[in-house]
């Protein structure tokens, strides 16, 4: 149940006499208002204004004197920060944070243009790292999800430039994003910030794998370390949001392995040394299990099914069957957890995963001899049976949770049963 549902249905319950207005207010008090979603208007406004200013200045940049160039850079930068601080003091956080974000964008543009102006060394990334440091600092100072998003994007852009243009990995950038924003996430585990941070960390991890020329399956060791951090987060929504991108990446890999994977063909890409890889993955698994046990979340342990190293199996039928078993088991675990927690969103996700697994099973195993109409018939029967079973279980749970109603006794019998019979003073007591 959510506050939005109570706000929508509560007045009707009061009108029908199911609950009183006082009870409705108590229910609303149990579900405080959720944090507002990230405002896209300040973000888009900051980006568009920044791009507009950059395009105008860039078109005439070479014709401007050096002093005027510096004045434009410093004036736009200080003006954005000053205007943002002004609107924050006036109680307009969306516009204020948007202008602060614009100032952050202009700060990075100033670093790049100043480097070009004075012909600084092109392979020195210290200025770009300073851009990331400024983003992390502003995120702490203002506590804005917009600034967190911009900093993650800036970190990804700086790292991409280092890898693509310089052929190196900026560990300072990765440490600032993972450490600086990671601690920010631990203290303020908002859903949007958690998801954005996890996606940014996965991008950094992917670039590191590219630079190191490692097997791509090494990607999942640090990726699942991000997942394990979500297990230790006391705030459950924030922890789940951080775990979403790593789980999506693991599922897409397993899905692709089931659909296209012939590991005999791609063994040079997928298979790292067995013992070091399994040892590193087992260490992350132990950390995740400890977090789940500490926070009471062992029901999500089956998420690790997606990390079973099936790519060590030979290609063909053994690989297809193994990956399909994993996909079905994972979909079943999601459905079971959704039913147990009465979570409709997880139930929808589990149903989609189940259908996707069934489609892969058909195309990989039965395409050659099972007619399409029969496949769709079997799939429909399976889904209808699953729906009937879940509805039946839900009805049983509701029936068990509802106390049985008994007819109210009449007043005479109630009085008789309520008060014990007193002895008649005129009647002598019986001998024992």
From TrEMBL:
What spans are recorded as compositionally biased (Pro residues)?
A: 422-432
Keywords assigned: Membrane, Transmembrane, Transmembrane helix
User: Does the UniProt entry include the keyword Signal?
Assistant: no
Tell me the superkingdom of the source.
Bacteria
- What organism, scientifically named, is this protein from? Hymenobacter sedentarius
High-level lineage: Bacteria, Pseudomonadati, Bacteroidota, Cytophagia, Cytophagales
What protein does this entry describe?
Answer: DUF2157 domain-containing protein
Span of domain DUF2157:
12-147
Q: Where are the transmembrane segments?
A: 37-61, 67-88, 95-114, 120-141, 146-163, 169-186, 198-220, 240-261, 273-291, 311-335, 347-367, 373-390
